[in-house]
User: Fold this.
Amino acid sequence: MKTKKCVSIAFLGVLAIVMLILFGSITLNNYSANFDDLSNTDKKVLMEYDEYCKANANSPIWDGFKLEDKTVLVIDKNIFGNAYLINPKNEVNSIFAKKIKMPEGSSLEVYRVSGFYPLLLPMKYFMGSFNTIGNSYSLLGNEVYFTTYNRKDSVDKEFTSKHFITFLSHEAFHYYMQLNWANGTRFIGDLSEKDLSLLQQEYELLDLIHAEMEKASPSKDTLMKYAKDYVSVVDQRIAANEAYLNKELSMETAEGTATYVGIKASEIVNYDYGIMYFKNAKDVPFADIIPMLESGGVDVSMLSDVIPYFTGAQLCLLFDALQIPNWKAKLNEQTLSTPVTLYSLLKEFTD
Assistant:
């Protein structure tokens, strides 16, 4: 009997603490509705998204990808962090949400959501860092695309794909544009000495392409020559190891296009992110990867887990430079049964 009484008291104590936290979070969330009173991190995230939305509405990075028309939920992963519901389609009416007075000229309608709102907690702590393809999520009567952020990686850190707008645009592109694309997930496979030798040739050509495109006035004739040489090397790689290349080219297409979108979004907000930015460095040459692998500086998994993001993005930028017609539309039109790869588009254009 005494034990039951102690349990009941403990339960009531926990319940009181929970209610106190909820009441306190509601009070704090409603304390100020001015943008200027938000934390520097929250202001940076919202202003960056606003800048991106305005620019993309005027000149879309990718046909059909209009994140500015979606309802987005961004969640601060800090334990005391709030969330922000942006551009809701349906009316928001909750004691856990407060409309923020945004600066004049902002394109965003924003509601701050208490970080302790019970229906937010699963997204904040148990559903990963973003929506997954094929699943839908809702909050406060709105279907949302959600992503999480933190000050260190999303705002302060240099040269990272986890920067707020870089990460959001990349992952949202997967979600909204690639539902019917061929599977481009991570893969495993063995590479022979011949495979690695051909891969090194491919990487050297990508460096030449990158260097030419960095010039003030890139030569389309030179880029076309490099593109033809690139296709020739990839053709040899396919002949030598078709099963591996089928998986690599699929992932290169899915992740490379999303990385391209992230790079373009980064340019809009003047964040420095581009080809071969990783390991706290920028502009790492493709041709350095195989020697690093041979010396033990990187693991072989990098060839499948990381580098296709950048080889694919470099090809996308090459397509822009060569003004390949309708290349984005052709990728958009693919289906699971009729896949299109970046390589196949380049081969078609150079033949």
In short: The chain is about 50% helix and 10% strand. Residues 10-25 have pLDDT under 50 and may be disordered. Residues 2-29 form the longest helix (28 residues).
